[in-house]
Amino acid sequence: MTARVAVDEGGSLDPRVTALRAAVARCRRELAGYRADLPDRRIAEDELTALAAAAAAGVPDVLRLRRGLLVIAGSLGSVSALAGALAEVRGAIELFGAPRPQ
After folding, report:
1. Residues of 38-61 as b/e, b for ≥16 C-beta within 10 angstroms?
2. Long-range CB contacts (within 8 A, 24+) of 25-34
3. Cα torsion for 6, 101, 90, 47, to the nearest 10°?
4. Exposed, middle or buried, 34 (CB in 10 Å: 0-12/13-18/19+)?
């Protein structure tokens, strides 16, 4: 299956993909800057890397994005210092709408 790169007629990237890339980048930066010990930090970092790769490939699978968000949220727990960045990721994923029924 070939990745669908979301580009409009003017050659601009899909704004949903742009928002997702920015949100994931922010979350990665803030997680890197958060120095407290998080037992599942590596899981969150790996999932953020996967979301970044999905965004770079074009319009990602909504179900995969939502699963990734759950993994990240579960990994970070209730770390209030990262809540804003995680909310931005969630908002960017919600721009893609609900997953299609299978």
Report:
1. beebeebbebbebbbebbeeebbe
2. 25/52, 26/85, 26/88, 27/72, 27/82, 27/85, 27/86, 27/88, 27/89, 28/52, 29/85, 30/81, 30/82, 30/84, 30/85, 31/76, 31/82, 31/85, 34/79, 34/81, 34/82
3. -80
4. middle
Q: How many residues does the chain have?
A: 102
4: left (phi over 0), alpha (psi -120 to 50) or beta: beta
pTM score of the predicted model = 0.84
Distance in angstroms (rounded) separating the CA atoms of residues 59 and 71? 20
Q: What token pair was written down for 22? A: 């920015």
pLDDT tens per residue across span 64-81 = 999 999 999 999 988 999
Mean pLDDT, range 43-48, rounded to an integer: 97
